[in-house]
Amino acid sequence: METLKKSPVCKGGFRGISEELVVGFFESPLTALTISTTSTVHIMDFLTDSFMSAFVLLWGLDQELLKIIYVSLKVSSVSTLVASLVGIPAGFFIAFGEFRGKRLLITVLNTLLALPTVVVGLFVYAFISRRGIFGPWDLLYTQKAIIIGQVILIIPIVTTFTISAISRIDERYRKTALTLGANALQTAWLIVREARFGIVAAVVAAFGRVIAEVGISMMLGGNAKGFTRTMTTAMALEYDKGEFVLGVALGIVLLAVSFGVNLCFNFIQGKARV
């Protein structure tokens, strides 16, 4: 008992320990808050500097930036055009045709809408690599290879949207045209005109899909500077290098393009419903 009374804990030790605990309790959150605030400030400064430098690149029309944008728009536009030339007629004939397996074919097309870009890239790579069937054509790591992969990716989109647009057209249009003496080609043109907004929406949606994809462009294009480097692959490369200025600039352009595409898509869809 005497030992306990003489111990420093009993002679105000408990009070000292309590004060330290209370001070530590309040100091720890304050220290954490200070560190968190400092980190947030550094992050905001970093983002601000990156965005400012990106806008300088855009305003100065940086040649490397413009080349990347040009390659992206060129490849995506050609892919969308080729896919439209295949997908629109295919969608028309599937919508009006009566054949065995039609429901199964539409189901397969709907499934392919979610086709991963990596799967398409692997599939095309197997055919155009040196050991593939088309290896002697030297297509790998060219813009043509990217276009082939992107066309395969978006043909189901164009076809499915076209089927949907044409299926909404009243059957009486076709019957009336045939009754008035129109031939098959004239009847088809009449129906396409009536479904034009839905078909254009299909094309716009397909372009929006390929302009933002990265898997096919990276696997089949090789991300060669000035030749196969697209906006998405360049952004991935800049991230790996730890240099974010060009990546942020390309991100701004890509967002602007995506916003424009979606704006057009919503406008066309609105027209189609009228």
Structure description:
It contains 12 helices and no strands. With 274 residues, the protein is an all-alpha fold. It has 2 domains: 2-52; 61-273, MetI-like (MetI-like fold). Helix 6 (143-167) runs antiparallel to helix 9 (196-211).
Parts with pLDDT < 50 across at least 5 consecutive residues: 1-17, 20-27
The helix-strand sequence is HHHHHHHHHHHH
Query: Could you name the CATH topology of the largest domain?
Result: MetI-like fold
CATH class of the largest domain: Mainly Alpha
Largest sheet: none
End-to-end CA span: 95 Å
Radius of gyration: 30 Å
Q: Return the CATH architecture of the largest domain.
A: Orthogonal Bundle
Give the amount of beta strand, in percent: under 5%
- The total strand number stands at 0
CATH 4th-level superfamily of the largest domain: MetI-like
Percent of residues in helices comes to: over 70%
Number of domains: 2
Q: From the helix content, strand content and strand pairing, which structural class follows?
A: mainly alpha
Let me know the average pLDDT.
80
Shape: globular
Number of helices: 12
